[in-house]
Design a protein that fits this description.
By secondary structure, the protein is mainly alpha-helical. The protein has helices at about 1-30, 35-50, 65-95, 100-115; strands at about 55-60, 120.
Length: about 120
């Protein structure tokens, strides 16, 4: 069932979303300062390609103060708007019974989009 959900996700927007995250990642990696942020958008790209059956977990060490500072910078620069976009799509998809599983995947992506530093995708 997860494979079928992932294929439907991929065809109806997952591929486009992943491509957008991939392009954003390459643009962010142009500068040395943007490399950590580019790596986080790669995380979002991976989750956008195949979200069903994956879980987002906190990393064991938590990243300490650096992770906290990077998450605050991420939220201020654009993570908040990415999170709101995924929340909006999640709410929109949850209006129908068929869209609820896809809406839940957007909620998972919204949580990762808000604070990606210190998180792993399993």
């Amino acid at each position: 069932m997860k494979t079928l959900g992932n294929i439907i996700w991929l065809l109806f927007g997952g591929l486009l979303t992943a491509a957008e995250y991939l392009v954003a990642s390459f643009v962010l990696m142009i500068t040395i300062i943007g490399i950590p942020f580019g790596l986080q958008t790669l995380k979002l790209c991976i989750l956008a390609l195949w979200p069903f059956g994956r879980t987002v977990t906190d990393s064991g060490n938590g990243g300490g103060c650096l992770s906290l500072v990077m998450n605050v910078i991420w939220i201020c620069v654009g993570g908040f708007w990415i999170c709101l976009t995924h929340l909006g799509f999640g709410l929109l998809l949850c209006l129908t019974i068929i869209g609820i599983p896809f809406g839940r995947q957007h909620f998972k992506m919204a949580a990762l989009a808000l604070t990606p530093f210190g998180k792993n995708i399993a």
